[in-house]
Amino acid sequence: MKKTLLFITFFLIASQTYADVIFTPIEYSGISYSLEAVSSSEKTTSSYGTTALWAGAGTVGSFFFINMPFWGVEISIEKRHYFKPKTYKGLFISAYMGIALMTDLHTLLDFGLVPGVKLNYKIRPSKNFAIEPYVGLSVPFAYCLTYNGLYFPLPVLTLGVRFGFNSVKR
What we know:
mainly beta; 1 helix; 9% helix
């Protein structure tokens, strides 16, 4: 019962704020790109689902501010639902909660708490390596450590790719 209530609460929060864990700390960033190197471990929960823990680093930026990329590190727990049973690759949707630390490598340093959902596609060129292109909308709860201020960027359409080590434990 506790797991069900936790999942419903998480789902309701995630359905209200779509996100990618690394984020663009610009309030009006519009459409963003993201490229992330991650390491993830998935534990199967059903023939269609897994729970993934992952961590990584990447770059994200706005297509409207192309000369202002941001860099960051991230860690997340993610619930995945695959559309084909027992393959744990191909098209899937996910809901997750993560944290990220972002910088422009000059002056800004931002921390974000990021719940969200994505539409993903997992390609497995080898047993322990995965490439995951995705589409998502982002609205992180962010705190600027440089200027000591809490802010909420407007929703951002994010087109991204995650790649890296991936293991699935059955």
